[in-house]
Please model this.
Amino acid sequence: MRIALVGDRSPSVRSHVRIPSLMEALRERDGIAPDPYWMPTDDVSGLEGFDGIWLLPGSPYRDEAGAVEAARVARERRIPFLGTCAGFQHMLLEYARHVCGLDVAHAENEPGARDFLLTPLACSLAGHEGLVRLSPGTLIERIVGAPGTVESYICSYGLNETYKQALAGHGLVFSGHGEDGGVRVAELPGHPFFLATLFQPELAGDGRLPHPVISAFAAAAHHHATSRAAPVESTL
Model:
């Protein structure tokens, strides 16, 4: 089970430091043996061959286009996808541009652009925890198994609510919201697994127990791997 960890790896990014222990915990607790490959955003060639793509925090990325491409490949090739924090932001950017046809930018990456899909939050969530209310019957609600969850953030940018209806009108579901009503989770129904969270599930606990979102993503990647490996029965 090959998982692409897309992000510009840095020891100063807490979520990156947590990844090795989370991968080991998936082996020990969930019986899933991931084979993770770190991929910098300026070199994302070959993503089609992976069983899961995780677009990690760490913005501003070295290459916005590479981060957007990771989300596009996962969406179009139906590869299980998880985007967290900046991964959430750039998944929305990919969807807005390539599915909705919007000419929009990320304010952190292009402060001089005309229209912004991602804008500074009214109140920065960097270093904070907050309640996320989950929509009944959605993927995230089934994964968490509760109507709400308290999660950790290290972010200062979120969805410009002006574009929320346009993205939803093209099939994206906003399935988690903060107490202020701001979008915290987005998912794509009909895809094997396509989920992004503004919060960082990799920061839950002490890093030795995978968050349910991470376990669900790993399980989807494992299913993708086994499905590809399964022999095709002859119809002759």
User: Anything to note?
Assistant: The chain has a mean pLDDT of 93. The two ends are 31 Å apart (CA to CA). The helical segments are 14-30, 64-77, 86-98, 139-144, 164-169, 212-229.
